[in-house]
Amino acid sequence: MKVVALAGGVGGAKLVDGLAAHLSPDELCVVVNIGDDFEHLGLYICPDLDTVCYTLAGIANPETGWGRADETWNAFDSLVALGGPDWFHLGDRDLGTHLERTRRLRAGEPLSQVTRAFCAAWGVRPTVLPASDQRVPTLVHTEEGVLPFQEYFVHRACQPKVTGFSFAGAAQARPAPGVLPAILAADVVILCPSNPWVSIDPILAIPGICQALAGRPILAVTPIIGGITVKGPAAKMYAELGIQPSALAVARHYGSLLDGFVLDVVDAELYEPLRSLGLQVLMTDTLMRDRADRLRLAEAVLQLGERLLNLATCNESDEKAV
Ligand code: GDP
Questions:
Q1: CB of 195 closer than 6 A to ligand 1?
Q2: Ligand 1: which atom is nearest the Cα of residue 289?
Q3: Mean pLDDT per 10-residue run, the chain (322 residues)?
Q4: Does residue 194's CB lie within 6 angstroms of at least one atom of ligand 1?
Q5: Is 188 in a helix, a strand, or coil?
Q6: Beta carbon of 150 within 6 Å of any ligand 1 atom
């Protein structure tokens, strides 16, 4: 089964890791959010791409979910001792990635090509694509003004109240090479349990991606369990925007894009409301505490994908028969 997964960082990477264990490399393509990307210390940093690639390569920090395992902090410590910025942590191994990426980008290589080269070096076999080769930074609109994403997320620790989001330059951006063909060839598209506002929406904002998705069987895995997030500000964002955070709110957020939804067992009371949105719903434990959980959840997600694919095939043959 050919699968395209749309992913942000930590939540997305965990599910993608499980999917990669069940699918052959040519069956899985991951399209990754680039809205978090930014320049810092003269380096171009792509937090979600790195989290997905490090996780698939088995070199991610298992405690944080981001950054590298077996990391040291010598460069960062000496930078801070000299009065440099201390709000964005960069480990020594991780710095190597940003130095080489920045060098290649400055030499004119597009981000998708750099990512392909890094994946080959790290032994990552599924296809990993940035959503676009152009820069489309997420801007967080808050009661304290418009903040660049990392300023809001890391420097201000998500404290300012959000009022909305925009994706600068999205209208002029194009999907990276390979993104649209992968979506058009996909049997099923999975919206990973990533932040809908700042991980999945920035991907959907790139012209052409929503059009390519229309008509594909699409399912989402809830990033909200029991009204709260496992990590990060998604639930806080819903609340500040006047929407009660829940799996149902996530399904409504994606609206008519969705055919299926993976709901956590703790939210069983949302099963019928989700069904009444016309969705195929699979209820399971969606919390990925360890690798076994990632594999188990990925298997369940793929089962729902099969179900959606069979329904789509049946509908097609019904239409042909009419
Ligand atoms: P970020 O870019 O690093 O913030 O990562 P994502 O946007 O991919 O993931 C953040 C979202 O993933 C949050 O809304 C979390 O609640 C969700 N998440 C993280 N771990 C899990 C998990 O184990 N299960 C589920 N269902 N959601 C998770």
A1: yes
A2: 23
A3: 97 98 98 98 98 98 92 98 96 98 98 98 98 98 96 95 98 98 98 98 98 96 96 95 98 97 98 98 97 98 97 77 62
A4: yes
A5: strand
A6: no
